[in-house]
Design brief:
One of its GO terms (biological process) is methylation. The protein has 9 helices and 7 strands; from the N terminus they run H-H-H-H-E-H-E-H-E-E-H-E-H-H-E-E. It is an alpha/beta fold.
Amino acid sequence: MIDPFRQWAFDRRNHTHSQCVYDWWSRHDRVYAAFVTAFLLGRTGEFRDRTVAALSLDPGDTILDVGCGPGPNFERLADAIGPTGTIVGVDASPGMVKRAKERGEQLDCEVEVLRADARRLPLANDRFDRVCATLSLSAMGDVEAVVAGISDVLRPGGRIAVLDARSFQTAPLRWLNPLVEGVSAYITNWYPDAPIARSVEDMFTEVSMKAFHGGTVYVVTGKKRD
């Protein structure tokens, strides 16, 4: 299922700023959870629920969680796919992968977690029924390549759901963007202008987007063409 050479090549690369940042967060998971909760104004669980619901999961589905972090989506996904389903989590941070594996061990369904570059997923084409990404694509430098790779591993007719955030869209909060973006880029490797919605629109059909908090937080979904 996983190409050993591609995994080895990825592991041989030096840590990037992003990996160092998220390795630190993985060692301070409670602080990480508190940060995300504050960033989403206390609605983290609600937004994750919306994202999972948008996937229209069925028992036995195989789902990929891109940029899975410490696995905060795993329980929700496992409840939807049941013991016959499979979750595969992918993250670039060794620390996050370790945390996610520990979390996956507590679930009834099959859980596989690997360290990989989301732009070059070492996974078989057309393997997954569904793909989700929550607050992760905007931390990746080449969103177009990531979404294209997601399309490759998603089976025809499969669905993608992305939860992410962008800068404040309206005044007066928009005036805070330089400060928020500067701090967030350092502590979370955030790219607020990442063309996530446009990339999904380019690669998928039946694309829809729901925005919250004045357009700052959004969930975008799509379907791979048959």
